[in-house]
């Protein structure tokens, strides 16, 4: 499949900030791409900008090799089912939602794991909509992919597309590990930002707080300006993992609180020194390279690619030649081999 020069034909369904940025980058790279959004105003804006933006979803996705699914988290399963019914079985489908276990389970229940690869580009801003799209949003960003054993063929093609066109770091993970990781790295920080900003909003000295707010307050509350419904959908979609990780954060906060209450300088210093090592991680990496037979055990290939991502590394390439596939990547120098 592909156009006359071998480029994949792509569609982006749901063209908010993330979907719109994917669309914009593909368009700039010369990849044949069509967009579609349920909002007619967004479709009109897309056409005004020179993109292919049909009014009917079927016209956007039929005949495409790859379809990216965006839009609100609660709508993604039904969108997946609809797009799968409109496209050829060879069409690769991936999504950009911020939780993965539920949509992966849904895909499995509907026999779609052979063509659907759950995805999550870890990039964004506080803005929303196609007008906020940025072609360079994903450069050097982590882009999680969660393939299943029978989804390695579409996974390989997505690795090449994401690395070559978006210059992103492909991070393979299982859906469950992804949801646990993003609960602590992304979702709980949204809770903390909302709590801090909310406390300031309710404070008797609110105006003075805002006037004197420096980097620490601005950095700590930046994501509180994310559209509220988008944040709420994200938190509720990953509720179990968010609550589990929030309990750990509360325990750490209780420890800091007790050290302040006890006027315990050594305890405070020790806790912040430990925190500093995570905030400023080592940049020492080592290359990885692994080749697999295409007719070999898919479980072995799946275990390898997941191990790269779940150890803090990422893939830098995937090449299929003859009867083999070769992966290249980087992982932390101290990660297990």
From TrEMBL:
A Pfam cross-reference name: PDH_N
GO molecular function: NAD+ binding; prephenate dehydrogenase (NAD+) activity; prephenate dehydrogenase (NADP+) activity
Annotated ranges, domain Prephenate/arogenate dehydrogenase: 8-290
InterPro entries linked to this entry: 6-PGluconate_DH-like_C_sf, NAD(P)-bd_dom_sf, PDH_C, PDH_N, Preph/Arog_dehydrog, Prephen_DH
Coiled-coil regions, chain positions: none
GO terms classed as biological process: tyrosine biosynthetic process
Keywords recorded for this protein, A-Z: Oxidoreductase
Species assigned in the record: Micromonospora matsumotoense
Keyword Oxidoreductase: yes
Keyword Oxidoreductase recorded: yes
UniProt record similarity statement: Belongs to the prephenate/arogenate dehydrogenase family.
Protein name: Prephenate dehydrogenase
């Amino acid at each position: 499949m592909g156009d006359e020069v071998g480029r994949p034909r792509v569609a982006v369904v749901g063209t908010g900030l993330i979907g719109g940025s994917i669309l914009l980058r593909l368009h700039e790279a010369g990849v044949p791409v069509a967009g579609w959004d349920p909002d007619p105003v967004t479709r009109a804006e897309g056409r005004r900008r020179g993109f292919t933006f049909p009014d009917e979803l079927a016209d956007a996705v039929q005949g495409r090799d790859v379809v990216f699914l965006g839009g609100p988290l609660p709508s993604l399963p039904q969108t997946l089912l609809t797009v799968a019914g409109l496209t050829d079985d060879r069409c690769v489908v991936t999504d950009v939602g911020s939780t993965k276990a539920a949509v992966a389970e849904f895909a499995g229940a509907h026999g779609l794991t052979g063509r659907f690869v759950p995805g999550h580009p870890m990039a964004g801003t506080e803005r929303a909509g196609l007008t906020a799209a940025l072609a360079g949003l994903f450069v050097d960003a982590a882009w999680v992919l969660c393939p299943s054993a029978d989804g390695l063929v579409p996974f390989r093609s997505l690795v090449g597309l994401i690395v070559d066109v978006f210059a992103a770091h492909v991070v393979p993970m299982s859906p469950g590990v992804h949801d646990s990781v993003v609960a602590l790295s992304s979702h709980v920080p949204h809770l903390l930002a909302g709590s801090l900003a909310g406390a300031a909003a309710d404070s008797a000295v609110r105006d003075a707080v805002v006037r004197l707010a420096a980097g620490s307050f601005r950095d700590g509350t930046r994501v509180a300006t994310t559209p509220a419904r988008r944040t709420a959908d994200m938190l509720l979609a990953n509720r179990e993992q968010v609550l589990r990780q929030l309990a750990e954060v509360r325990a750490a906060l209780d420890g800091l609180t007790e050290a302040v209450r006890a006027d315990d300088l050594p305890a405070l210093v020790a806790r912040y020194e430990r925190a500093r090592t995570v905030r400023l991680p080592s940049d020492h990496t080592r290359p990885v390279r692994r080749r697999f037979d295409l007719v070999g055990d898919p479980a072995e290939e799946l275990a390898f690619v997941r191990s790269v991502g779940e150890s803090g590394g990422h893939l830098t390439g995937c090449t299929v030649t003859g009867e083999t596939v070769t992966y290249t990547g980087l992982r932390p120098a101290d990660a297990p081999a």
